[in-house]
Amino acid sequence: MTNDGKYSGSRYDLAVEKLTEIAGTIYNQIDKGQIPKMVIPLRTKSNIRFDSKSAVWKYGKASGARTAKKLKGAQMLLRTMYMLEFIEDMIEEEKSSTLREMYYISEGWDKAKFGAQEESNLLAEDLEIVTGCLREDFKLRPEEAGASVIGNITITEVDRKGRKKKINCRDDVGDSGYGIPYNVEKDKVEIKDVDADFILAIETGGMFDRLVENGFDEDARAVLVHLKGQPARSTRRFIKRVNEEKGLPVVTFTDGDPWSFRIHASIAYGAIKTAHISEYLATPSTEFIGITATDILHYELPTDKLTDKDVQALKAELTDPRFNDPFWKSEIETMLEIGKKAEQQALAKYGLEYVTSTYLPEKLGELGLMKK
Amino acid sequence: MSSIAEEMAKKQKEISVAEFFEKNKHILGFDSATRALITAVKEAVDNSLDACEEAGIMPEIFVEVKKENATDFRVIVEDNGPGIVKKQIPNVFARLLYGSRFHAIRQARGQQGIGISAVVMYSQLTTGEFAKIWSRTAGAQAANSIILRLDTKKNLPEIIKEDFVIWEKEHGTKMEVHLKGKYVAGKQSIIEYLKGTAIVNPHARITYVPPEGPTMVFERASEAMPPQTKEIKPHPEGIELGELLSMAKDTDSTRMSAFMANSFSRISNRVAREILETAGIPQGMKPKELSIEQAKAIIEAIKRVKIMAPETDCLSPIGPSLIKKGLRNVLGEIKADFYAPPITREPSVYSGNPFVVEVGIVYGGELNKEDPVQILRFANRVPLMYQQGACVITKAIESVDWRRYGLEQRGGQGIPFGPAIILVHVASTKIPFTSESKEAVADIENVREEIALALKACGRSLKTHLGKVTRKEKTKLKFEIVAEILPKIAEKSAKIIKKPVPKLNGTITKIMNIVWIDDSVEFVKNKHVIKINVYNYTPTAKTMDLILVLPNNNGFKISKATPEPTVEKEGVVLSWPIKRLPSTESMVIGLELSGGDKDAYDDNEIYVTGIDPVSVIGAEPLPGDWDVEKLIVTETPAEEAEVPEEEEEADYDEEGEVLSDDE
Hints:
The complex is a heterodimer of chains A (372) and B (663).
Chain A: H1 11-31, E1 37-41, E2 48-51, E3 56-59, E4 63-67, H2 71-93, E5 97-98, H3 99-105, H4 117-131, E6 140-141, E7 148-150, E8 153-158, E9 164-168, E10 178-179, E11 189-194, E12 198-202, H5 205-213, H6 216-219, E13 222-226, H7 233-246, E14 250-253, H8 258-268, H9 278-281, E15 287-288, H10 293-298, E16 304-305, H11 308-318, H12 326-338, E17 340-341, H13 354-366
Parallel strand pairs in A: 5-6, 12-13, 12-14, 14-15
Antiparallel strand pairs in A: 1-4, 2-3, 7-10, 7-13, 8-9, 8-11, 16-17
Helix pairs in contact in A: 1-2, 3-4, 11-12
Chain B: H1 2-11, H2 17-23, H3 25-28, H4 33-54, E1 60-67, E2 72-79, H5 89-94, H6 115-127, E3 131-136, E4 143-151, E5 156-165, E6 172-180, H7 190-200, E7 205-209, E8 216-218, H8 241-250, H9 256-263, H10 269-279, H11 292-304, H12 320-331, E9 338-344, E10 348-350, E11 353-363, E12 374-379, E13 382-384, H13 392-399, E14 420-428, H14 445-497, H15 505-512, E15 514-524, E16 527-537, E17 542-549, E18 557-562, E19 566-569, E20 573-581, E21 586-594, E22 605-609, E23 616-617, E24 620-621, E25 650-651
Parallel strand pairs in B: 1-7, 12-14, 15-23, 22-24
Antiparallel strand pairs in B: 1-2, 2-6, 3-4, 3-6, 4-5, 7-8, 9-11, 10-11, 11-14, 12-13, 15-16, 16-21, 17-20, 17-22, 18-21, 19-20
Helix pairs in contact in B: 4-6, 7-12, 9-10, 10-11, 13-14, 14-15
């Protein structure tokens, strides 16, 4: 995926070369009197395939064309040209920008101005797919903060002044934990020692704080990671590196609703939107410990009614290849049947200790990660 | 309806007219307080317009409705007609079934002589007040002022008071009645009736003073009187038994053959002999001795003998140009996008009665898109306000599949939806109303079919217009691509790879791949200046014939044309052969028309042949079914080797799937 040694120049030189190739293709098409177009793998649910070698979901062979025949396609091609120029300028001037900054810079691009930031994010991903580079190679970074980590794991991070700092994520941090930076590649972050049995990735801040307060990291020898909703790339990458480099199993613990199922999917199987880098972001061995629809029934949890959007999302998951196994099918169908969802904090119904004294030991015990 | 009249006449001796009126209020248009008020205005205005037209006077009509108290209204209608001689005033206003037109066969608004006297009677019955009439004939020293009562027992007028008054009008009639009613605005209202009247009578100037609010004036849209309608004898086809018997009784002829030839139109002596022979009736028999059986035999014989269709010059259609003017004049404030060229069909015949159908469609602007279309129904230039559902006009509209013509319609039948007004006018010497109240035209197959044909013809223009609009919008997007976006893509890509900016022609023609026809009409110095630009935005040279259709009977003269067109139909259809217009090149056609007024021409009707119409924007393919003479269409030449269309790939940006796993 990245500059894994085949190329002698820097990752940025490779990015410039690849981006210039795109401009060259468009130029040649116009020069030959053809309608300019770019062919890109379709980033759709129906075009992701399970790659048995890496055990994650990647884009399949179906592709679509972005052509100047249609107004939207023409606009996207023009945006692509502007973005190429912008990236090459940044690389030359050794600057970088956030995705949001690039969105605002497009204000000056006239007809190529982005209508919403989502459009510029998607285009940046398109360029990753076409060039095989990462958006970091384009000097683009997300503005969203990475997740927080608390647990007995020691890392080193090169700080903004270029100093390598050693940080123990339990002893050297406050109650909000170690903040994962947007870049967690080896040149920035090294994972040194780990004295824990597993990573527990938690969806909500409330539950993360509850487990911290109850001392669960120490009692259960767990590295707690607060995902902050749908996890950022760097969070997923960090989890994968700890899993691969230190052999720590990963467990996700989320709310019981369709969106939480997708949080697990993006960690375990790869996200549809970033399937071109699933291999780099996803941790296929990740286990899900709820809240499932069965848990809602079994633990008699307080619930909310599914909204129309929830129902739609669940139905979409029934045709999502990532969820095409008996476990998910049955959980999704059960949730549709009962028409209810529950938050992970609903476990507080049985007291503040219940989650750490009963629920998690039961669930983790089944996986052999904790003694019941 | 003549049966009602006959019934009335028969029963007059037995029951009082007032009783008859009371029983038949609904068919006379007085069944509700709201409707009574509208009927009062309508009958008076219809009479005024008829009187003015018969006398060849441009109508100037004044209508006032005053509110007297919660339930009572005073209606005043005044015209500049020829006036009525004193002797006739009582009979015209206060005697049911009295009217000069009862036995005349011609196109007129009033037909039975019931209307205005019914108004007088209604006012008398509801308020006890008598009608006041002023009338002055040309040359008279003063106007007659008469207060009239209708003797409801004898159906005879009674003069309560008469006098002479000084009136500044040289001639005209004024009527004032006091009646119970209810004033409303909206779809069925006096204002709507007067609006409708103004649309189909663009030669009339109508002033209206409502009970509240400002005075409204509908100015003339035309300074020309409609042509006088001719009186004709009844046509034998469709004659009814009772009618034939009473005609035979009343005739001065002494022989059946002479009676037949003299009393009917289109019956020559030879045809009269043939009918009588077929019916087995002696030529010399006295008409007065005609028995019912013999009359039946004659009616049967008429069906078997070939008789010419009735003459149709007794009809006075409004005409396409005046319908458009009338619509624009009255509906101007809704700023419609499009007035489809109105259609006036050739006269046709039902049961021996000539009739003609006219249709106009107004589209867009401030008209509501969500509502059913508005229907404006007219019979002999009179707006029909009630019983829309029972009317053949509505049925004809419902029978057309409007989806083909750009309006929404559930299941392709019923009243269509969309921002449109559909006007239908039926003119006839005898409108087949469903009832005496004259609010709906009976569903006669022949009439319905004629209306449907006119609707479809008008609908085609609407569709052509709408097609033009959407295709031009689509093409505008393509223009945006090639004019604004593509040059920048080329420029940027050239800059990035450090090469000169490439030429765009080839790419432009592939993206556009159309022949673009851009046209305009301007009215400059009493001339219509027409400009047609033809651009070839395709990768190959194009050959085609371009056809321009001018309105029928337009009176235009071509004062200038570059290049010189081929005249396919004198003054109406012009064509220009375009030979090998090279890729990316354009040509201009210019035409100047003199002799028409501004409104007579405002939209070019352009067609093409000899080219694949899909690749042409701004002109329609020459329709196979159109009603001008068929043009000699040049064979479509073999297109130069077209670049094969690239295989269609999925559009990357149109997948429309939510990529994000987020909420």
